[in-house]
Each structure stands twice: as structure tokens, then as C-alpha cells.
Amino acid sequence: MGACCTCQRGQNFEGKHHNHNHNHNHHNYYEENNGEQKEIEDDYQSIVGRGDLGANVRLCGFSKFVSMYSQQGKKGINQDAMTVWENFGGQKGMFFCGVFDGHGPSGHKVARYVRDFLPSKISSYNNEISTNSIRWDVEKDDSEADNPYFVAWRDKFLKSFKEMDEELEGDGSIESYCSGTTAVTLVKQGEHLIVGNLGDSRAIICTRDDKNELVSEQLTVDLKPNLPAEYERIRSCEGRVMAMEEEPSVYRVWMPDQDCPGLAMARAFGDFCLKDFGLISVPEVYYRKLTEKDEFIVLASDGLWDVLSNDEVIRIVATARKRSIAARLVVHHAVRAWKYKYPCAKVDDCAVVCLFLKRQRPLLTKSLSEVTELSLNYTELVSSQNYTPNSKIDDGLDTLLNYQLKEEKDPNVVATGLNDGSGNDHNKSSSRHARYLSRRKSAMNF
């Protein structure tokens, strides 16, 4: 269990012994009643403490504008973590949301560590940013480069993520040499939305098109190692980007002289064995000015996006009978999709945060039963997409330690092997690598 997000700052942290696997054994939001699920209105139980400047901190559950749910997969302990801070920075109606997907032997600890401390770092800069104190150029408001509000928040995100990674590296109580976490985060302040993304979790928004129909828009980019810019950075730092023969579509980052750790993303907190070889903890930061057409935002770990499309997710959320069950419905749909699409694979962990932008009102006329049929009728999915369940798919692991790679070049990505002709000595050890030899312990033999 990671440190509490506020207990080390002398603030009131009311929650005790929280179930971080989020199986909700003591937070029963549903109970069986004559074969039907009945929602238990215990919203207050999901508030686990007070954050900086009096923010309400949630690790699970729901509120008027938030629905959260996480479910452990079949790979062991749930390495996903999530949090929502309401009245973030002491401002009423301001939100911080984050989903963190851990990987590696201690990934669950890293994810919770970042979950607990990153919001406070960002919040500490909140007083420096005020919509009233920033001078606006009305002709340039829509451009990120010229938007002073975006520029101010981007700098704070970059600084907070950098400090968070440095703090993690210096904390010897958490093994982060071959363990780490992604982070997809957002701050909503009035009509302004700032999204900071690190890794391959994702944020989408549900909005309305010109015909007033609900459509999805992806707010982030899945930062995979085979993206051209990510690949070039990793290669320039002597890291290797290769896909294994049994999963040719999953590109991973490897150390130059070891088949380790096989990280399936290009940016992350932790994973210090790769920080000298192209992996970075610098987030991509995005800005969006919200309008009346925007309905809600969904943040989720890659266990969701591996099996459900953006459009499927917004349809499930939009037709939920109550907002409080929206995230849970999305996760349940994802689990069923996993079992159908990848019957021989282990279901991945899944964490979902839904942030609603307006007071509740019906979004669609279709009933919950109708959308369930639409989203879960995978017979129609197969016929419409010509999709064949893959019985040989891997378990979707984000990290592979000491895997014996075959030095075969992929036609789509040129792999950087032990000798790429550049004259670089790939057997040299970095200073960080040397510092962490004593802390690797059992991680390299995992």
C-alpha cells in the first residue's frame, strides 16, 4: 500500500485500511434484491480524506459528477490505481482526476505512490494560476501555443511530473528499477481542461456533433514505443524497440545489452533501468476549452481500450441508468469483451473514471437493456468487423523481464540490436544503472 496522500502533511485523512484492489467488499454499491441489483446510496463512504486546501479525495465510488470503478484482472494483484480530488486546490467545482496503471514486480506500489503524491504537487502550484490573473488575447484563445492559461498549466504539469519521478527514484522503500506506472491525468477548472498523459492509458471526451448526436473524441495519444518520435528518441539513446515473434504487434523497449525489461510503452514513472535509454517521464500536455456540447470525460487504463472502442465506451456511459454505475458498467463490458476476443488470455486489470460536465439529464433515448445488446452482441461484432478471436494472444503484460529475444528485424520498425553500425558501445553501463545494481534485488530474476 502506498503512503496516504495527505497523512505526511499533517492533514485530516479519514479513511482507514482501504481495499486498493477495489473489489468493494466493504463498499457494496449493489445488493441483490429479488434477482435485481439495487444501488446503495453511500456516497460519503467513498471520500477517504482531505487533500491539500480542503479537497475531497476519492479512491473509488461516485459523487454528483464522478463515477469510479476498478476491477482486478486475472494476472495477480490489481496494479491499477485511480483518484479524484474534488474542489482541487481549494476551488469549488475544480477537479483533478487520475488513472495510474502499474507494471513490473512492484508496479502496484509505484502506481499508488504516484496516485497519492502527484496531485499534491500539482495542487501546490494552483495558487499561481488564476483565470482572473491571466491576460487573454481573444484572437488567440483557441491556439494552445498562444493560450496563456495552457502555457501556465503545462509548465506546472511538466515540473510536477519531473519532481515526482525524481522523488520516486530517491525513495529506497519502493523498488522502481524494473517497475513503474503510466499516468493519465486532468485538471478541470471552469471551462478549461488540461490533460497530462504519460504512457498508454487514455482519455476521451463525449461531445455532440452538428446533428446533436453523441460522438467520441480522443484527448490523448497512446504513447507506444513504435510511434515515430518515440522510437527515434529511444534509438538515439541506444535503447532497442522490438516485438516478440509470438506478439508481432506489441512493440517493447529493451536495454541495449540485456533482454530486459520489455516495456510496452515509451513513457512512464519509474523503470529507471531504461531512463538512460530513451524512456522518459515527460508528459504530453493538452488543452481543451469546454463548450455546451461536451458531456463527459472518461479516463481508463489500457485494459479497457484493448477491447472496447472509444465509441462503445461513450455509448455505455451515456445510457447508464444512473451516473453512479457508469464506470462499473464500462468495466463489466470490458471483462466480457476480453473473454470473447481473447479467450486464452488473462483478463487485464481495468480502472475507469468518468467525469460528468453537466448536471444529470438523459443523454440518449435508448434504454440500458438496448445498449447492453448493442455493446455486448459480439456475434454482430464479428460479422461487422470480420474479427476472429485470437487464441494465441499473449496476456498483455506491460513488462517482460529477462526474456530471450530473437534478433529478427520487424519490417515496420528497424530494431536496434547490439551493434547497429553507429559505433556506439552498447555494453557500457550508465551511472544510473550502476547506482541501481544494489537495489535490483529480485527484480531482475522475476
TrEMBL record:
MF terms in GO: protein serine/threonine phosphatase activity
Protein name: Probable protein phosphatase 2C 65
Any one Pfam family match given in the protein's UniProt record, by short name: PP2C
PROSITE patterns the UniProt entry points to: PPM_2
Signal peptide region: none
Alphabetical list of Gene3D superfamilies matching this protein: PPM-type phosphatase domain
Bias (Basic residues) ranges: 17-27
Location of region: Disordered: 15-36, 415-434
Domain PPM-type phosphatase: 65-357
Organism the protein comes from: Nicotiana sylvestris (Wood tobacco)
Residue intervals passing through the bilayer: none
